[in-house]
Design brief:
heterodimer; A: about 130 residues; mainly alpha; Cytochrome Bc1 Complex, Chain D, domain 2; about 50% helix; globular; B: about 110 residues
């Protein structure tokens, strides 16, 4: 397939959307005939009084498998983040959220995170090996 | 016998070309360019928002430095440093930092 910016952007949007819907699976869907209320329309990721053992589930799929590689947009190892400096993890997530860093999957994930959630994830992953 | 030796030689040249980075050269370059902020082995960031590089995946480090160099990843400080690196420098540095066994990075989560 042609690897044009257009195709990349479309695929990126698709992947991000897929993640959002996968994450929203646990939520009951509003009936089709009724427009969703503001309450139901909230992005799934912001309703998290989720405990951390569930919350970092969105990271494990790629960052929790030693040796795992990205398949898109280019093939290389997904970076190790466990033991990384918390301040750097927060900076990276913010850069993805603002669009300053461009990986499509990470932009999709980071866009849904609040600063507090970024901080919690950074502390969780930044902890040293036991 | 000669032929086998030649074949082996050809193979080892091909293999080393594929491996790309030279960790020993990367170590020298790191001492000049990276050490002040990341530590000589990439394990001592000088500020909380700077990453540990020691033990990071080699191809990810190549990706990151290349992105800084060509502006795809935008950081004023890193652009200055990565901009002066050749492709070979980048591969050497990635080989050096990724081969460090002593690292805060781990696979436990």
């Amino acid at each position: 397939m042609a690897n044009t910016p257009m195709v990349q952007a479309m695929l990126g949007a698709l992947i991000a959307f897929g993640m959002q819907s996968a994450l929203a699976q646990g939520k009951p869907k509003p009936p089709a005939d009724k427009a969703p209320s503001v309450q139901e329309n909230r992005p799934a990721m912001s309703e998290k009084s989720l405990p951390m053992e569930n919350f970092h589930a969105q990271c494990i799929g790629c960052h929790g498998i030693p040796g795992y590689k990205t398949a898109y947009p280019e093939v290389y190892h997904v970076p190790r983040i466990a033991g990384q400096q918390p301040g750097y993890i927060i900076a990276a997530l913010k850069a993805y959220k603002s669009g300053e860093r461009s990986h499509p999957s990470m932009r999709g994930i980071a866009a849904s995170l609040s600063e507090e959630e970024m901080k919690q994830l950074a502390e969780y992953y930044g902890a040293p090996a036991k | 016998m000669k032929r086998v030796a030649l074949a082996l030689l050809a193979f080892s040249i091909a293999a080393s070309a594929y491996a790309g980075g030279n960790a020993a050269k990367g170590k020298e370059k790191a001492a000049q360019v990276c050490a002040a902020c990341h530590g000589p082995d990439g394990n001592k960031p000088s500020a909380p928002d700077q990453p540990v590089l020691a033990g990071q995946y080699e191809d990810y480090l190549v990706r990151a430095l290349t992105d800084y160099k060509n502006g795809r990843r935008n950081n004023a400080i890193m652009k200055g440093f990565a901009g002066q690196l050749s492709k070979q420098d980048i591969e050497d540095l990635a080989a050096w930092f990724s081969s460090q066994q002593q690292t805060a990075l781990h696979d436990q989560r």
